[in-house]
Design brief:
The chain is an alpha+beta fold. The chain has four helices and four strands. About 65% of the residues lie in helices and about 10% in strands. Helix 1 runs antiparallel to helix 4 and helix 2 runs parallel beside helix 3. The protein is rod-shaped and about 155 Å long.
């Protein structure tokens, strides 16, 4: 058997041979930094895209909820509004008679002698004729007609209760969506 002899080496160790040069290390470091920055940008872009998608979905949900609330509110108040329109049109003749009479009376109290022509349904003309006679006005001509109309020197006022009701109903119909069958 042979004995292996081992000698101790007391010489300073030789510097290890570098695997990469300083220039290669700098390039690798720069490439790693660029890769990390690109990955961070991609992660930020992905997070931003997700946040925008979530915001768009929330906005759509809110818009849907808002529209549903508007539709439900309109459906709830429409019968009351239609009843109000109906009530307005039924007492319109009384209000027209009261307004015309009050205006004629105001003109009389102001010292003016109104000169005008009032046309309207026979019931309105009869009621206004009594009021005009009570005020002692002579310059007012009363003429039966289909629509209520007051003509002065400078203009004409026409009031048609059915047209007003029809326009209000049409306006309500624009706001309330038709129910699908």
């Amino acid at each position: 058997m042979t004995a292996a002899l081992r000698f101790e080496d007391f010489a300073p160790p030789k510097p290890a041979r570098a695997l990469f040069t300083a220039d290669e290390m700098r390039r690798q470091s720069q490439r790693a930094a660029e890769d990390a920055a690109r990955a961070a940008r991609e992660a930020d872009l992905l997070a931003l895209t997700e946040a925008l998608r979530d915001a768009a979905l929330q906005a759509q949900d809110r818009a849907t909820l808002r529209q549903r609330t508007i539709d439900e509110t309109l459906q709830a108040v429409t019968p009351a509004l239609r009843a109000i329109v109906s009530q307005l049109s039924t007492g319109m003749e009384d209000r027209i008679c009261a307004l015309i009479g009050a205006e004629l009376q105001r003109l009389c109290h102001a010292g003016l002698t109104p000169a005008c022509r009032v046309a309207g349904p026979p019931q309105l003309i009869d009621r206004l004729a009594d009021h005009v006679a009570g005020l002692g006005l002579s310059g007012i001509e009363m003429v039966p007609g289909e629509t209520t109309e007051i003509s002065f020197e400078g203009g004409r006022i026409s009031v048609d209760p059915q047209e007003i009701s029809a326009r209000l109903t049409a306006l309500l119909d624009e706001f309330v969506p038709a129910k699908e069958a």
